[in-house]
Design brief:
CATH topology of the largest domain: Rossmann fold
CATH superfamily of the largest domain: Glycogen Phosphorylase B
Structural class: alpha/beta
CATH class of the largest domain: Alpha Beta
Strand content: 15-25%
Order of helices and strands: EHEHHEHEHHEHEEHEHEHEHEEHHH
Oligomer: single chain
Distance between the termini: 22 Å
Strand order of the largest sheet: 2-1-3-4-5-6
Number of helices: 14
CATH architecture of the largest domain: 3-Layer(aba) Sandwich
């Protein structure tokens, strides 16, 4: 089968994150199975003239950019030319909002190419993407269902949210995603409910877990019983500042914070000002280095205040056999049964996080039991071969559905 993966960023951008890891796992598994896998996405500058150019909407707030956000004629044209050169059986769409835009979907459909779309975030339901008010980080679902004007309000993104709100209304009115995409792959039942709530056809919504790679275990590995790990982007929706509060409240633990992001310098300064010498910031490190830290930590903590769709940090930690501590939110409860496959704490509540962390670190037998149970669950749900087989079935049916439309 000839598979075309389409994302707003081509591999090699180095932006990292769960989307890139998920795509990389799929591409590697599909190539190993003998499929021909191609990729399409934006590029910086003119290094690859066959691909559309990336436009940074965050650097320019001009309303003149709105048409480009809704319809990218260059992306549609470059994809048309690619399809003339290369035969494709199915297109696997990822995050195309703003950049590639739905303009590429009819290009694929006209050539009878089946289309499946991986739901990595809530962008179709929330112009701000995270169900969070950017200005204060408060959980918000006022845009549900299809009330996107809230994104342009002072309580949310303000004028910066006007473009995404208009884009969302255009997509809603034209139904361009719901019309052209044959299947929407939802990694959680929670995501399927969100998609159904905004009007996605029930027959197109498929729950299929993301591919997740097990972190490699170092040859020399010893658990540090008082070390906890935060691994991820240092940005407001991830609430990394809670780890500083944890370090201050439980001063006999070692907190390792792996990753970078817009809050990194602020967090370092805050930790220094508070005299928190039990925190280590690694900055950006490789996947293997993150894996080594997971294996050496007593627990891996996720503090996110947004509704994590399928957080790679949690899943990789579970596959590494680590006890995970995560906020008690709907999507994450699909993996974490409190005190069986991990621990839950009250979202945004530092007292709850402190209590749960102390309980985990004080009972090595319990955390290892939860680590084993979590690994068993994650290994069964995220087996690459099983997911790849299910994807092949969806690809074949998507191609058949596309043919029926013409």
């Amino acid at each position: 089968m000839r598979i075309l993966h389409i994302d707003k960023f081509l591999p090699g951008w180095g932006y990292g994150g769960g989307v890139e890891a998920c795509i990389g796992a799929m591409v590697g598994t599909q190539q190993a199975a003998g499929h021909t896998v191609m990729e399409f996405g934006t590029v910086r500058g003119g290094d690859e003239p066959e691909m559309p150019r990336f436009f940074d909407f965050t650097a320019s707030k001009s309303p003149l950019n709105l048409p480009r956000m809704i319809h990218n004629a260059e992306a549609a044209d470059k994809l048309e030319k690619l399809l003339k050169r290369c035969r494709v059986d199915v297109a696997h769409i990822h995050s195309i909002y703003h950049h590639l835009t739905p303009s590429i979907l009819p290009v694929l459909a006209r050539r009878h190419i089946g289309i499946v779309m991986q739901m990595h975030d809530y962008r179709m339901a929330c112009p701000a993407k995270h169900f969070l008010r950017p200005r204060d980080g408060v959980h918000c679902m006022r845009c549900q269902p299809n009330k996107y004007f809230h994104a342009a309000g002072r309580g949310c993104s303000g004028l910066a949210g006007a473009g995404p709100a208009v884009e969302s209304y255009v997509s809603r009115l034209t139904r361009n995603y719901f019309r052209w995409v044959d299947f929407f792959i939802c990694p959680t039942r929670f995501m399927r409910r969100i998609m159904r709530n905004i009007g996605a056809p029930r027959s197109k919504l498929i729950v299929l877990r993301n591919m997740v790679s097990t972190p490699a275990k170092p040859k020399k590995n010893k658990e540090k019983p008082r070390q906890v790990l935060f691994a991820g982007r240092m940005s407001p929706e991830k609430a990394p500042e809670m780890m500083l509060d944890l370090a201050a409240r439980v001063d006999d633990i070692d907190v390792v914070m792996a990753g970078d992001g817009p809050m990194l310098d602020e967090l370092k300064c805050d930790a220094s000002d508070r005299g928190l010498d039990n925190i280590t910031f690694t900055g950006h490190i490789s996947c293997d280095e993150v894996g080594a830290l997971m294996h050496s930590s007593a627990a891996v903590i996720v503090t996110s205040r947004w509704l994590e769709n399928s957080t790679m940090t949690m899943l990789e930690a579970m596959l590494a056999g680590r006890c995970v501590i995560v906020p008690d939110r709907g999507p994450l409860r699909e993996w974490i049964d409190d005190e069986r496959t991990g621990r839950l704490f009250k979202p945004d509540d530092i007292d709850s996080l402190v209590t749960v962390t102390q309980q985990v670190l004080s009972n090595a037998a319990a955390r290892r039991r939860m680590g084993r149970a979590g690994k068993e669950l994650a290994s069964a749900r995220h087996d690459h071969a099983l997911i790849a087989d299910r994807l092949e079935i969806l690809y074949t049916e998507a191609a058949a559905r596309c043919a029926l439309r013409w």
